[in-house]
Amino acid sequence: MKALILAGGKGARMGKITKKNPKPMIKIGGFPTLEHQINLFKNYNIKEIIILTHHLSEVIERYFKNGSEFGVKITYFKEKNPLGTVGGIKEIEKELREDFIVLYGDTMLDIDISRLLTFHREKNSDCTIVLHPNDHPYDSDLVEIDNNQRVVAFHPKPHEDNGYFRNLVNAGFYVMSPKILKYIKKGVKADFGKDIFPKIFKKIALYGYNTAEYLKDIGTPERIIEVKKDYRKGKTRRLNRSNKRKTIFMDRDGVINKKIGLLYKIEDFELLPNASKAIKKINDSEFLAIVITNQPVVARSLCSIEELEMIHKKMETLLGKEGAKLDAIYYCPHHPDKGFPEENPKYKIECDCRKPKTGLIEKAEKDFNIDFKDSYFIGDSFRDILCGKNAGLTTIGVRTGDGCKDRKVKPDYLFDDLYGAVNFITKK
After folding, report:
1. Number of domains in the chain
2. Which of 134, 354, 353, 376 is nearest to 245 (CA)?
3. Three-class SS of residue 70?
4. What is the pLDDT of residues 213-259, one digit of tens each?
């Protein structure tokens, strides 16, 4: 498999930093970002690399030459005129006879590429977009996927006022079939995320691969400082999915948002004070932030799956406006009690995902490779605490919502709210 690295941009937002040095050559930990990318590909036995250049291309070619010193084979294509993230690939389409990888050259990353490629093959995908939540979705181009991870919509910035969206951002890392090349016009400047994907996602098998691994662009001086700090601390490598991750699981109602009984109307959803601040604190640590919630409102026919997911989009949007993000939301729509005339029989079943059962936590573990012994469950009810205990997690109760008043199941710790609980965990 070949990897294409797009390294031709001028880095207009970087000022003097990229006047004599192209953005992909900015050093992180003493080595150019491009070198980190090439080493990552080599680690996964991807050794044929094409670098597409334009601005200060000679700096890149002089450093990497043919790649032999780095254990790979490197060739170059220099664009005469900048053609965005798309045009240069069309120019070399004769060299792309099988599936290939595309990566933006200003991205610092460390992800399990083997797992990404397995996902791509198992989905029989024509194009797989690597996605991740970020802390500024309000000014990002967002992607929407269904429960089978197929892309169903694109939401470019600026977003409409009062619109609610999943926090899934295009990371600028793709696995592509040559089939996609027929949708690209030769010699035309274009961008995959803005110009190509939104026009073709209904025509091809386009999937989104959601990951919580390390993926950050170095597009601004502030982000360079952040990435350098993360690399120095070893965070970049530790977030690779091959390493187990610590997680803070949270209930939703009464922990993140105000509890009003059965919440099924989107207008009734309201974040609790300091909830965004608490989740932002999780994000600043190396814990994952994952919601595990029972939502029997679907089984009771109070709302549909689509309406429930819109409530979750509102939650993600409100959190995102405060710079906070959730790595995943898992919900159980079922309820075991049958026989009510208004119920939705499809969801009135015994299941393994309704808390205090641990089905949703087990699914999260499979998705994220979670280390249970260093993970926590924060909740406001006996179901939350018992679920956490059943999974072998440290449990923390909060006095918001139901307040963990059922003393038959005692949490390991008790705090006033989510922020107090998270503050305790992250300081510990």
Report:
1. 2
2. 376
3. helix
4. 999 999 889 999 999 999 999 999 999 999 999 999 999 999 999 99
**Owning domain of residue 218:** 2-237
Q: Is the dihedral of CA 79, 83, 84, 87 positive or negative?
A: negative
Q: What φ, ψ does residue 88 adopt, rounded to 5°? A: -65, -35
What does the CA dihedral 419, 421, 426, 428 come to, rounded to 10 degrees?
A: 150
pLDDT in tens, 115-147: 999 999 999 999 999 999 998 899 888 999 999
- Report yes or no: 388 and 394 within 8 Å, Cβ to Cβ: yes
Show the tokens assigned to 250.
């949270």
User: Which ranges in 221-304 belong to alpha helices (H)?
Assistant: 221-233, 235-238, 275-284
Point out the residues that are catalytic. Answer: 251, 253
Residues paired with 175 in a beta bridge: 101, 128
State how far Cα 313 lies from the chain centre: 14
Which two three-digit tokens encode residue 350?
């015994």
- Domain boundary among the residues 174, 205, 237 is at 237
pLDDT for residue 156:
86
Co-location of 82 and 211 in the same domain: yes
